[in-house]
Structure formats: structure tokens, C-alpha cells
């Protein structure tokens, strides 16, 4: 059973590959416009929109849509920084504080399922020199919140509570639950298999 990933994210593809999941990645045709609601509601709606945009092309296999936001304590949502200056500003805001990484997952198959996962991350106190050096590495490109926890960004982290892979780009615990409802098990030698 091959999954369809409605995403071009290299992090999401790498996570699925590391799990031994057979999948095809298809770019979704979905415009991420601002939406009303809580961060969890927004990421779930966007994840479903991405999955459904691919479902128009095929529905013979389960389709996975994913969307992630970084939310700081005052409720501001930090998306992907457009440039180095914005990345630096985001990291300075996150330094020494907790933030939430919230991902919405949608699985469209025999059923249409949508759920969200949240991981709490605290960055340590950072000097301006550390932030400038990190920004110069350009790991912030295409990353919500402006850092990559699976790369040098790990050195910025003081504490994490929840699914680490959610911060990387795909909450695997939640994915396992949703796929199990489709009769698919991730906990199988060789990746996805029909559950018995």
C-alpha cells in the first residue's frame, strides 16, 4: 500500500522514508490564505485542503495532507521567514521562551480524518552573536519559526515536550493513529502494511 503525500517538504519525505513507508509525493494545489480560528483549527483546515487538492487527481490510495504553525506565548503565529532579517527577528523573539509547534494532519481515504498535534519547545537564552551565526547558516529557509531542530538548530533548544518529529515536520504518533483507522499499520517491517 503506497501512501500519497500531498507535500513537497523534504523533511516530511525524509521522515516517511525513515519509517520505511512507500509513498509518492505530489505537490498540492492549495493557496494558504489567512483563515479565521485557532492555530489548531487553521492547520487542520489547511491540511485537509492540501489533501483534497490532490484527491482530485486520485483517491485510490490514502492521501496525507500536513500543515504546521509555530505559535508563541502571546498568541502570535510565526510562519516561514521571508528573509534573513525576519529569521533573526523570529529567533530573538523565541529566545528564552516557550512556543508551540502545532501540526494539522488530514488523511483522506476510506474515511476523511483530520486531527492536530502540539509540541512545546523552549529555546535557550541566545546571544545576538549566536543568532547571527545561526541565521548565516540559512537553515531558517522554508522553516516555520526560523529554525531546523534536526540540524544545527538543535543547539538552540533547551527543552522539548511532545513529539520531536512534529517539530521536524510530521507528528508520527498522530499519523500512526490516523492510518490505523484506515487499517494501515506503520509498525511493521518494511513500512506500511494492511493491518490484520
Summarize the structure.
The model has no long low-confidence stretch (mean pLDDT 90). This protein is α+β, with helices and mostly antiparallel strands and 196 residues long.
Model regions low in confidence, pLDDT < 50 over at least 5 residues:
none
- Count of individual domains: 1
Name of the CATH first level: Alpha Beta
Quickly count the helices. 6
Overall pLDDT, averaged?
A: 90
H/E series, N to C?
EHEHEEHEEHEHHEE
Q: What is the CATH third-level topology name?
A: Maf protein
In percent, how helical is the residue content?
25-40%
Record the SSE blueprint.
Layout (H helix, E strand, L loop, with lengths): L2 E3 L4 H9 L4 E3 L13 H17 L7 E10 L4 E2 L5 H11 L3 E11 L3 E12 L4 H9 L20 E5 L2 H5 L3 H10 L2 E2 L7 E2 L2
Parallel strand pairs: 1-2, 1-3
Antiparallel strand pairs: 3-4, 3-5, 5-6, 6-7, 8-9
Helix pairs in contact: 3-4
Fill in the keyword field for this structure.
7-stranded mixed β-sheet; Maf protein; globular; 196 residues; alpha+beta; two-stranded antiparallel sheet; 9 strands
Write up this protein.
- This protein is an alpha+beta fold and 196 residues long.
- It contains six helices and nine strands; from the N terminus they run E-H-E-H-E-E-H-E-E-H-E-H-H-E-E.
- Strands 1, 2, 3, 4, 5, 6 and 7 form a seven-stranded mixed beta sheet that branches.
- A hairpin with a 3-residue loop joins strand 5 (98-108) and strand 6.
- It starts with a strand and ends with a strand.
Amino acid at each position: 500500500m503506497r501512501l500519497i503525500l500531498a507535500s513537497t517538504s523534504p523533511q516530511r519525505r525524509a521522515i516517511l522514508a525513515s519509517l520505511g513507508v512507500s509513498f509518492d509525493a505530489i505537490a498540492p494545489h492549495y493557496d494558504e490564505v489567512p483563515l479565521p480560528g485557532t492555530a489548531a483549527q487553521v492547520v487542520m483546515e489547511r491540511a485537509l485542503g492540501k489533501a483534497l487538492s490532490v484527491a482530485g487527481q486520485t483517491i485510490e490510495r490514502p492521501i496525507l495532507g500536513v500543515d504546521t504553525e509555530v505559535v508563541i506565548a502571546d498568541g502570535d503565529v510565526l510562519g516561514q521567514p521571508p528573509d534573513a532579517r525576519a529569521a533573526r527577528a523570529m529567533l530573538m523573539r523565541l529566545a528564552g521562551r516557550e512556543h508551540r509547534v502545532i501540526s494539522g494532519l488530514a488523511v483522506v481515504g476510506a474515511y476523511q480524518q483530520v486531527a492536530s498535534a502540539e509540541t512545546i519547545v523552549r529555546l535557550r537564552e541566545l546571544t545576538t552573536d549566536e543568532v547571527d551565526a545561526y541565521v548565516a547558516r540559512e537553515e531558517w529557509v522554508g522553516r516555520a519559526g526560523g529554525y531546523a531542530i534536526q540540524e544545527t538548530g538543535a543547539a538552540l533548544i533547551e527543552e522539548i515536550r511532545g513529539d520531536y518529529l512534529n517539530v521536524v515536520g510530521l507528528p508520527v504518533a498522530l499519523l500512526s493513529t490516523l492510518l490505523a483507522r484506515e487499517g494501515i499499520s506503520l509498525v511493521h517491517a518494511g513500512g506500511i502494511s494492511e493491518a490484520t
